[in-house]
Give the backbone structure.
Amino acid sequence: MLAESLFFSAILFTIGVVGVLTRRNVIIIFMCVELMLNAVNLTFVALSRLHGMTGQVFVVFVIAVAAAEAAVGLAIIIGIFRHHESVDLKNINLLKG
Amino acid sequence: MQSSGLFYQFHFYLFGLIAIASALAFVTRKGPVAAALWLVNTLFSLAALYIMLDAQFIGAIQVFVYAGAIMVVFLFVVMLLNLGDPSEIADIRGKWGLIAAGAVGLALVAQLLVVLRQQFPPEAPVVRDSSRGVIDGIAEPLFREYLLAFEIASILLLAAIVGAVLIAKRRA
């Protein structure tokens, strides 16, 4: 089932990348990043059957970091929304040169 | 879990296809709430795949932490922000975004095809002492070799909690 897992994982990662590149809503882009993290987790779990338990330990850490990232990122989105009254990427250009 | 057998393979493909179909629905929905619910569907099918790949504990925390906690935070923020009509905000980016996305997608699919052409070594059957349960295999390295990383992860979560509260707090 290793080849199938890697196939599903690659497809999901690609969908996540395409979502990040095509959507404009910051919250949906953020969810696409979560989807990419999950695709990588699937790879880790599939390969952990071949190479030992370290892959699954790593998945635990990835999930912990994803939780922290979601909390901080959504707090930042709330802050941006207070400023601009919008979550559209084209309005968030303060750092553009 | 027995990884041969038609029953196993059928369900493996079934959950994989559900995951991919839900992910496609997720990136194409306009409203953030519909997108989030499709993503929850994807995460649940991924949890099923984890369990079929002998990672029962990962499957459980996938449901608890991802489908439960993280997606609830997302939905909470979506409802907190009062975004208005989805057609105004959820528009696709312009021509260049689509071209870049298509190029990256094609490149990734090409890489995928190259990777899938090689032969993978046969998987060793997972030998498990049934008296010790399924969590033992992951708990042992987690609390021995990776104990420092585990503690650092807890500090990271604490910092994230404090940071999120401070950033999202309304300034007086």
